[in-house]
């Protein structure tokens, strides 16, 4: 998520007397059209997708180009069917699958 979206989430969480746990991390990314990017924060965020709720780690990006990018790790939890022609996505599960560990043997 962008830093702008992070600030909005923090503000809404504070107004509703909720808790928001931002954690330090060190993750270096090599973006397709960028020279490189270091992500320094991650937060477990509660997401609602259709009728399903889940908590998923969301990394904070210093770039504000896109408010939120959905990663393959989140998509995998829904076993999605994606129609790129009509820009539609469907899930094939009734509840989100567990988060795969970063060290799993699955190629990303």
From TrEMBL:
<protein>
    <submittedName>
        <fullName>Uncharacterized protein</fullName>
    </submittedName>
</protein>
<dbReference type="InterPro" id="IPR021109">
    <property type="entry name" value="Peptidase_aspartic_dom_sf"/>
</dbReference>
């Amino acid at each position: 998520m962008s830093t702008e979206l992070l600030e909005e989430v923090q503000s809404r969480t504070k107004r509703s007397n909720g808790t928001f746990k931002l954690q330090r991390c060190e993750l270096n990314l090599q973006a397709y059209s960028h020279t490189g990017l270091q992500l320094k924060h991650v937060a477990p965020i509660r997401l609602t997708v259709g009728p399903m709720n889940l908590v998923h780690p969301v990394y904070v990006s210093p770039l504000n180009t896109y408010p939120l990018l959905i990663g393959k790790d989140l998509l995998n939890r829904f076993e999605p069917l994606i129609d790129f022609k009509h820009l539609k996505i469907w899930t094939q599960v009734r509840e989100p699958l567990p988060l795969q560990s970063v060290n799993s043997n699955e190629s990303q």
